């Protein structure tokens, strides 16, 4: 027993072992090291560091990387936080540039929630859920019921809720795409349930491969796993890809055949660079329309968030999930489960409402909103392709073209000498590469092993959120030097 264990009630030897097992690389060792470098630079103690700034390309945190908040959202939020300002509309309008629709929206939301300092209903304020349902209906062309909408503190808490409900025993398994955003594997580890991995097809733009999914399911069943659900991330993190409508339909049909709940993580639904986004909800309703009765029992939970897209308000912790086809008694247990946490942040709920119901053409704030929104969209798209082009030029790097989300996930081939050097540091080769990159350039990325990758392949993930292209040059230079050093 360690000395600490003798002095304290809690030690690593007696806390929940499942928490210890969970891994979450996007905020792991390299992220911690990068923060140390940042603090060092902020104190003016550059020392031997060969760079002047740290670029946190490890996490999709838009405003940390200088994405500006959308004015409409923040103007309304400021009035929600300090309603006294509403007593001075002339000051707001004449001196601060607030438009009439900002004031009207704040008044409406205050009426809906009373105060952002008050708890709301556990699944969110009714008027906000209605607004979300209206948005879904406009997006998909099919009705949505506000009673089936559950507001959440970001999509993370929604996923946490769903997995808590589904994972009833250690043998419960959930099909998880690999590579995946590690929220899924980490939460399954905490819940002492099983991740049933299915590999995405890198060569086909990281699409789903139904045969691979079937094989994974069969293998899991043989091992005694009770597979209850399939998770899909579309657009993908870390893959930077968007699923085709055919892939979506195939997954839904498979889920119907195998009686699997579908968890559709759609937090990147507006970060789409090729074609247009198709929701799983629309895919399901289309199937139900085409073959009435056949897909009525499919259970679908789809998630969205204010953290990504052009909103980027991840610090406000807002999101929702919509349930379709769930048994009402199960839904009641979900309601009870979220009630234990009382309610998601009410300011976050209000920002979800604004995301779902932004200024429309003809509204006083529309012009600025539109300019800011598309400015961010175009900037992200431009940087995605600049980074992609840079990867295309790099020796031993292959990257799928960016079609969605905020990431690129290239394959990297390193020499046996680099593999040996990694081994001698007790690291996997991808960790070694990314660790060297951080020390040489200040750019923090995440090794592919943090998301899962096919055996024998190596990747790294980077966001393309950081402004400018200087840091892309830093990566290119480092890569060349790395390849030369270990040739
Ligand atoms: C695929 C995916 N799902 C969920 C989340 C969590 O987002 P939120 O901030 O809404 O909890 C993220 C965050 O990066 C993500 O990439």
TrEMBL record:
CC cofactor: pyridoxal 5'-phosphate
Classification via Pfam families: Aminotran_1_2
Spans through the membrane: none
Aminotransferase class I/classII large domain ranges (all copies): 102-469
CDD domains (UniProt xref): AAT_like
Keywords assigned: Aminotransferase, Pyridoxal phosphate, Transferase
GO terms, molecular function: pyridoxal phosphate binding; transaminase activity
Domain of life from the UniProt record: Eukaryota
PANTHER family, per database record: ALANINE AMINOTRANSFERASE, ALANINE TRANSAMINASE
Subunit composition and interactions: Homodimer.
Similarity remark: Belongs to the class-I pyridoxal-phosphate-dependent aminotransferase family. Alanine aminotransferase subfamily.
Protein name: Glutamate pyruvate transaminase
């Amino acid at each position: 027993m360690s000395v600490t264990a003798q002095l304290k009630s809690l030690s690593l030897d007696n806390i929940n072992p499942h928490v210890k097992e969970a891994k979450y690389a996007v905020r792991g060792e390299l992220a911690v090291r990068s923060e140390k470098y940042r603090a060092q630079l902020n104190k003016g103690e550059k020392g031997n560091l060969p760079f002047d700034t740290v670029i946190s390309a490890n996490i999709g945190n838009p405003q940390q990387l200088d994405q500006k908040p959308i004015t409409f959202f923040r103007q309304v939020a400021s009035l929600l936080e300090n309603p006294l300002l509403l007593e001075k509309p002339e000051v707001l309008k004449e001196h601060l540039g607030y438009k009439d629709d900002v004031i009207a929206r704040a008044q409406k939301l205050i009426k809906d929630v009373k105060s952002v300092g008050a708890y709301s209903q556990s699944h969110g304020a009714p008027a906000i859920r209605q607004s979300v349902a209206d948005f879904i209906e406009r997006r998909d062309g099919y009705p949505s019921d506000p009673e089936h909408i559950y507001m959440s503190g970001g999509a993370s808490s929604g996923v946490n809720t769903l997995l808590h409900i589904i994972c009833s025993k250690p043998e419960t398994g959930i099909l998880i795409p690999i590579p995946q955003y590690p929220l899924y594997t980490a939460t399954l580890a905490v819940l002492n349930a099983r991740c049933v991995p299915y590999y995405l097809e890198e060569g086909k733009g990281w699409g789903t491969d139904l045969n691979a999914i079937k094989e994974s399911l069969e293998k899991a069943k043989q091992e005694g796993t009770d597979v209850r659900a399939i998770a899909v991330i579309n657009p993908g993190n870390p893959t930077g890809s968007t699923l085709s409508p055919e892939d979506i339909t195939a997954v839904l049909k498979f889920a119907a055949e195998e009686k699997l709940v579908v968890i559709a993580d759609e937090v990147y639904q507006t970060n789409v660079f090729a074609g247009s986004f198709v929701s799983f909800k629309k895919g399901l309703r289309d199937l139900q329309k085409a073959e009435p009765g056949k897909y009525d029992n499919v259970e679908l939970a789809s998630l969205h968030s204010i953290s990504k897209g052009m909103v980027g308000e991840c610090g406000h912790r807002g999101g929702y999930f919509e349930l379709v086809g769930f048994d009402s008694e199960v839904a009641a247990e979900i309601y009870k489960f979220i009630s234990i946490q009382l309610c998601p942040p009410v300011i976050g709920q209000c920002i979800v409402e604004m995301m779902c119901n932004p200024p429309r053409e003809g509204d006083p704030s529309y012009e600025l909103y539109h300019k800011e929104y598309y400015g961010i969209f175009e900037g992200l798209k431009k940087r995605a392709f600049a980074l992609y082009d840079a990867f295309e030029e790099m020796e031993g790097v292959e990257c799928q073209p960016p079609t969605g989300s905020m990431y690129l996930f290239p394959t990297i081939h390193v020499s046996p000498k680099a593999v040996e050097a990694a081994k001698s540091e007790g690291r996997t080769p991808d960790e070694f590469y990314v660790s060297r990159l951080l020390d040489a350039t200040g750019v923090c990325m995440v090794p592919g092993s943090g998301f899962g990758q096919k055996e024998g392949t190596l990747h790294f993930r980077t966001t393309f959120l950081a402004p400018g292209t200087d840091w892309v040059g830093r990566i290119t230079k480092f890569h060349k030097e790395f390849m030369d050093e270990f040739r």
